[in-house]
Design a protein that fits this description.
Structural class: alpha/beta
Helix content: 40-55%
Distance between the termini: 36 Å
Number of strands: 13
Strand order of the largest sheet: 3-2-1-4-5-6-11
Shape: globular
Radius of gyration: 19 Å
């Protein structure tokens, strides 16, 4: 199998590339810039460019059997600041990508959607794939629109899409900009001897999934003769306060956060029901939060010493 990974130099993408290569998949990466934390991998065909560039995407698709689409120009915290940019940066390029894939004869796509923002405030706990979609951020609205275009393309032109609605991935190679990723942001700040910040009172509950487990699910989705929507999470919730406590235990010492006002797009609790992925894709989470935190902290410490 030959796979184009769009966004393959990013945090999640780099782990997906690792997982695919370990499975013997031939990988080509399309991304705007090289990986931030390691040199280019031997045997991987890197194409530096923008997936909004139709001609470049067409060239990158040559000889490929499938696409794993992980790229996004926004995060939930930034999308509402400029919804037009969210649409123009993510939805429009995706619609163009589907046309290019059709022309190139590539009919398989794994798309990374969002397991929290597409639902808005959950009405059930845990949240299944059939939960109503009531997003309160442009990020979630655009993700839903993209999902709908994928399944329209399936109905009209035979695309074989798998949508993975991911929870909150964390792990090595997560950046330190503080824009997204609670665990990564906290660990980087602590490594730099800075105070961590908590939005709200710490009661917000999220579902944290190690990035290697998410990458393994991407591989399962590629290999399976199946289409549809699957949640990608741990199936367990941890509050922000609980995560801070676990980080204290991991780094050794007291951590006193700076509490800031809550944000109106942060829903109180999101935990994903992952029984569908377990049953239909034969996938299970392998890395508990405590183990994943220790691994991520060791990696962050190694980076700060470089």
């Amino acid at each position: 199998m030959r796979v184009l990974v769009i966004g393959g130099c990013g945090f999640i993408g780099s782990h997906v590339v690792d997982c695919l290569r370990q499975a013997g998949v031939e990988v080509r990466v399309l991304d705007r810039r090289p990986e931030a934390f390691r040199a280019p991998l031997p045997g991987v065909d890197y194409v530096l460019g923008d997936f909004a560039d139709t001609a470049q995407v067409f060239e990158a698709l040559a000889g490929m059997d499938a696409v794993v689409h992980l790229a996004s120009t926004t995060v939930p915290a930034t999308s509402n600041l400029d919804p037009v940019a969210d649409i123009s940066g993510n939805l429009i390029p995706l619609v163009r990508l589907l046309g290019v894939m059709r022309s190139a004869g590539v009919r398989r796509m794994i798309y990374l959607s969002s397991g929290g923002t597409v639902h808005g405030v959950p009405q059930t706990d845990p949240v299944s794939e059939s939960h109503p979609l009531n997003p309160i951020s442009s990020y979630g609205i655009v993700k839903i629109a993209i999902e709908n275009y994928l399944f329209m393309e399936q109905a009209l032109h035979g695309l074989q899409p798998v949508v993975l609605r991911a929870s909150n991935p964390y792990g090595p190679r997560q950046g330190h900009t503080g824009i997204q990723g609670l665990i990564g942001t906290h660990l980087w700040r602590l490594a730099r001897k800075e105070q961590i910040e908590v939005w709200g009172d710490g009661s917000v509950v999220r579902d944290f999934l190690h990035v290697k487990d998410l990458a393994a699910l991407c591989l399962r989705a590629l290999q399976a003769d199946i289409t549809g929507i699957f949640n990608a999470g741990s199936g367990e919730g941890a509050s922000v306060a609980e995560v801070v406590d676990k980080i204290c235990a991991t780094v050794g010492g007291d951590v006193t956060p700076l509490y800031k006002p809550g944000r109106n797009f942060d829903v109180p609790r999101v935990v994903l029901d992952v029984t569908k992925a377990e049953a239909e894709l034969g996938w299970q989470r392998q890395i508990p939060l405590d183990v994943g935190l220790a691994e991520t902290w060791a990696w962050v410490q190694a980076q700060t010493q470089v």
